[in-house]
Amino acid sequence: LQLVESGGGLVQPGGSLRLSCAASGFALDNYDIGWFRQAPGKGREGVSYINADGNITFYDDSVKGRFTISRDNAENTVHLEMNSLKPEDTAIYYCATDDYTPGAFTWVEWGRAFGTWGQGTQVTVST
Fold first, then answer.
1. DSSP letter string, 34-57
2. Calpha distance 99→49 (Å, rounded)
3. pLDDT one-digit tens code per residue, 70-126
4. What is the pLDDT of residue 101?
5. What distance in Å separates the CA atoms of residue 55 and residue 53, rounded to the nearest whole number?
6. Rg of the chain in Å (alpha carbons)
7. How far is CA 89 from the centre of its chain?
8. Rounded to an integer, what distance in angstroms lies between the CA atom of residue 8 and that of residue 61?
9. Cα four-point dihedral sign 62, 86, 106, 50
10. Can you tell me the distance from the alpha carbon of 70 to that of 122, in angstroms, rounded to the nearest whole number?
11. What are residue 112's DSSP bridge partners?
12. What integer pLDDT is reported at residue 102 of this predicted model?
């Protein structure tokens, strides 16, 4: 199972980015998906979640109204649309699937255990 994030970059405050999480070797639509981020010197935090059916989403309070999660099952991809970006959104962003493998790194968020992770994509919001 492999996840690959893309779409990060450098953007000015107030700008927008669209992150993508693509899966290879398996069908992403069988899994709930989470987006997470980790800023330098800070812990990992959950940003947004979408269930396998795509009809339930969660957002951290810090991104509500600015970020939108969606899934494109035909492309086997999940997107995170990020608008009105702020400097405090600067972090490495990761996507992960809701699955558990004994012995593998697992992060619990929104009542789910996320065990397959991508390598991350850097988002920097700065002038």
1. EEEEE-TTS-EEEEEEE-TTS--E
2. 14
3. 999 899 999 999 999 999 999 999 999 999 878 888 999 999 999 999 999 999 999
4. 78
5. 6
6. 14
7. 13
8. 21
9. positive
10. 20
11. 109
12. 82
